[in-house]
Fold:
Amino acid sequence: MTQKDIDRINELYRKRKAGTITPEELAEHDALRRAYIEAIRTNLRGTLNNTTVVYPDGTSVDLGVKYGGKKPEGELPN
Structure:
């Protein structure tokens, strides 16, 4: 997702809010928003898969291993 795409989403939003958007532009806006949301989700998954939570008792949980399907460190790939 580029800054140009984000600017286009905002431009189409303003047209939608003003009531001057065409059906073609509405479809473009919806497609761009879906792509933007998917890019955010992908980025968040990548961040969480590389996050380790350390509890006060000293134990830690690698979120990528627990929830993201990431292999534990030291385990050989299949």
